[in-house]
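From the methods appendix. Each design record in this collection lists the tokenized structure first, followed by the designed amino acid sequence. Records were kept in a plain field format so they could be parsed without special tools. The example shown here is representative of the layout used throughout.

RECORD:
FOLD TOKENS (125 positions):
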């Protein structure tokens, strides 16, 4: 029962976030975080749930520290959602690759896998 309540609460919060995006009222609580550290911790967390599928998350970056202004909760939700999708659709004994790079103005985060991918008709969405 408690698990279902938490799931429903997350669903409601997601709907509220989407609604706020639609009417440009989404509030971001930006703070300076080391995104390398944040993503590495999320990958470690996700690794605990993929052993049964014999999948590995390969985390790669040339940087120990890359700071960016992020809304931690929303950033965490996005990265965990991307990792979850990669885990869900990656075949057994395959890898998920997480890569972080940067240039002078941007941090680039790539999460890729060898899963089934998104159909051509849904890629436009």
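DESIGN:
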């Amino acid at each position: 029962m408690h698990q279902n309540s938490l799931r429903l609460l997350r669903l409601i919060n997601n709907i509220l976030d989407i609604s706020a995006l639609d009417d440009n009222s989404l509030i971001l609580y930006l703070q300076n975080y080391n995104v390398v550290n944040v993503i590495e911790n999320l990958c470690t967390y996700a690794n605990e749930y993929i052993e049964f599928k014999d999948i590995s998350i390969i985390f790669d970056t040339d940087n120990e520290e890359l700071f960016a202004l992020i809304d931690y909760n929303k950033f965490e939700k996005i990265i965990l959602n991307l990792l979850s999708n990669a885990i869900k659709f990656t075949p057994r004994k395959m890898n998920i690759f997480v890569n972080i790079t940067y240039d002078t103005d941007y941090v680039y985060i790539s999460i890729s896998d060898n899963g089934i991918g998104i159909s051509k008709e849904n890629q436009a969405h």
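APPENDIX NOTE: The chain is about 45% helix and 25% strand.
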